[in-house]
Structures are given as C-alpha cells and as structure tokens.
Design brief:
The protein is α/β, with parallel strands linked by helices. The protein folds into 2 domains: 179 residues, Quinone Oxidoreductase, Chain A, domain 1 (Alpha-Beta Complex); 123 residues, Rossmann fold (3-Layer(aba) Sandwich). 29% of the residues lie in helices and 26% in strands. Strands 3, 4, 5, 6, 7, 14 and 15 form a 7-stranded mixed β-sheet that branches. A 6-stranded parallel β-sheet has the order 10-9-8-11-12-13, with helices on both faces. A two-stranded antiparallel ribbon has the order 1-2. Helix 6 links the parallel strand 11 and strand 12. Helix 2 crosses helix 3, helix 2 packs across helix 8 and helix 5 runs parallel beside helix 6. It is globular. The relative contact order is 0.15. The model has no long low-confidence stretch (mean pLDDT 95).
C-alpha cells in the first residue's frame, strides 16, 4: 500500500485528498517508480479545475517527478531496479508515493543532477528551453518581454534569455518580487500592478517594442503584449494564469505583421529522442549555472492542497516541490 493525492470532483484546492491505495505491479513496458520529489506546476491547477481535460476522475494530479525504479515490467530494457529517473508526462498522476509509468518516458538522471532539482525543473525547464530555442530562436541582441518573471518558468526564461545575450524585460505583480527577477538577469523590471506595461516597454525600447514576448499570464496581460510586441515580432502565449485569453480577431496582428503562437511542451518531446535531447540541453544549462532549481517552497505531499493555494494566489516564487 502507498498514499496519493486523489480528487473525485473538480474544484478548488479542497478537493485534493490524501488517501491510501493498493500498489500494483508494472505492466508491459512500464516501471514502478518510488517518488522522492514531485514538481508542482500551474498546469496542475488547470487540471484540478477541469480547464484542461487531461485527467479522468477519480484521479491524481501532477505531471512531473523524480524517483527510484522499484520494479521493472515485462519488455522493459535500458532501465534497472535502483536507477534514478525523472519524467514529465501528459498523463497526470505524479502526486503519489509510488506510480507505474511507461519506461519510454523515463529520463535517467546523471549523478550530478539531484532529485529535487530534476522534479522542480523537468517540466518548467524543458518548457523554457523549447520556448526559447524551438518556438522562437532567441539570440543575442533580441529584446524580450517575459511576463510573470518571478514565477517558476519566468525565472528560468529570464536567466536563460540573458545568458544568450538578450535584453530582458520582466513583469512582476509586486515590488517584493523585483529583486529576485533582477538577480536572475533581467535588465528592466515592470511592476504590472502599478505601471502600464505597454507604456514602459515603449519607453525602454524607444518605441520599437520587443521582438519576442513570452506570456504565461493570459487574459490579464494579452492586450499589453499585443501593444508591446515589435514590428515583425512574435507573441508566444503559453499559459492562462489569470484566465483564458478571449477569442482573438487575427486581423489585429496585421498592422505590425505579428506572429502569434500558443505552444505547449508536450508535442516537442513526444518523440523519445526529442525528449532525451531536450533533457540533456536542460541538464547542460543546469551544470553551467545558466538555470537553477530555485526551490523556495517545499511541502509534504499530503499538503498538496496548501501548495495549490499558495501558487494560485501568487504567494510563491521560483519552484515548488512536494516531498513524499
């Protein structure tokens, strides 16, 4: 027997319940992983609420974790009992002490990459890598705007873009978050609750705007993003932290010939070779100190509901990890 967070209905954090459940043997092509650290992401909130129909109820949230292989199912090669692994998957279920998972989605962890760091960065780190290098091709000299720069993906995007040689403008929701974003590498920080984002971007860029805008906030920031993007720029809307972006008349993109995309990381890593390549790029950036697992909050797995409350109310910075 082991424990997991299980929800039977959609709703607020209170629907996340700590329950005992029986363990089962891994099936064909699966391994049983005993989790040592579990990442918390905003997508978990979308799934909990039912905004993303990715989980059948009753179900267990969570997209990423690190742990140790406890048992290997039939047909599995390349993984062994006792091996350290990490994963990110479209199928929720990581908020658990133990889980059976497809072996092909497992990423072996190098000795110099810790479990907590991997759990904190697999989804957010690979998302940042793909946004910068596949969705866009950010390079030295580009001016970029990163919304919610104090958040988990925001800090990673800020540090990674700065390491490339970009001029980085970050938005934050309060003065208290400004210092951390500047420490991550932002050249300019805009407090969106007290400053007009589009006006400040125009001031900073002498009216040119930003070549790339990475917007994980959604409804509350989308209009400002449209105003702040440069001629021939690219607006990347990759999250809905404030709610879904309303329907958009694509004609509004025409005056500045703006590209608009709505990516997510999973199609980029659906192929195992792409998954391993992206993970290795992330691990290399971690080794170089370009990105770090700024785990500013940890919670016992049983207190996942509180982690959701704090994340949803924007009381957190950096990454959140649940500990079984």
């Amino acid at each position: 027997m082991s424990h997991a967070i299980i929800q039977t209905i959609q709703g607020g954090p209170e629907v996340l319940e700590w329950q005992e459940r029986p363990d089962t043997a891994p099936g064909e092509g699966e391994v049983a992983v005993r989790h040592t650290a579990i990442g918390v992401n905003f997508i978990d909130i979308y799934v909990r609420k039912g905004a993303y129909p990715m989980m059948t109820l009753p179900g267990t949230p969570g997209m990423e974790a690190a742990g140790i292989v406890e048992e290997v199912g039939p047909g599995v090669t390349g993984l062994a009992v006792g091996q350290r692994v990490a994963y990110v998957m479209t199928a929720p279920g990581a908020y658990s002490e133990r889980r059976n998972v497809p072996a092909e989605r497992m990423v072996p962890l190098p000795d110099d990459i810790g479990d907590r760091a991997a759990a904190a960065l697999m989804l957010k780190g690979m998302t940042a890598e793909r946004l910068l290098h596949k969705t866009t091709q950010a390079s030295a000299g580009d001016t970029v705007l990163i919304h919610a720069a104090a958040g988990g993906i925001g800090l990673l995007l800020t540090a990674w873009a700065k390491s490339i040689g970009c001029t980085v403008i970050g938005t934050v929701g309060s003065d208290a978050k400004e210092a951390g974003v500047r420490q991550a590498g932002a050249d300019h920080v805009i407090v969106s609750t007290t400053e007009n984002v589009a006006d400040r971007v125009a001031e900073i860029t002498s009216g040119r705007g930003c070549r790339y805008i990475y917007d994980g906030v959604g409804k509350d920031s989308f209009e400002a993003s449209l105003q702040a993007v440069a001629k021939f720029g690219h607006l990347v809307s990759f999250g809905n932290a404030s709610g879904a972006v309303p329907p958009v008349n694509i004609a509004v993109l025409a005056p500045k010939c703006v590209a608009l995309s709505r990516p997510q990381v999973f199609p980029y890593i659906a192929d195992r070779n792409d998954l391993l390549e992206t993970a290795q790029n992330l691990f290399a950036a971690m080794r170089k100190g370009i990105v770090r697992a700024d785990i500013n909050q940890t919670y016992p797995l049983a207190e996942a509901a509180q982690a959701h409350r704090d994340l949803e109310s924007r009381r957190t910075t950096g990454q959140i990890v649940l500990l079984p």
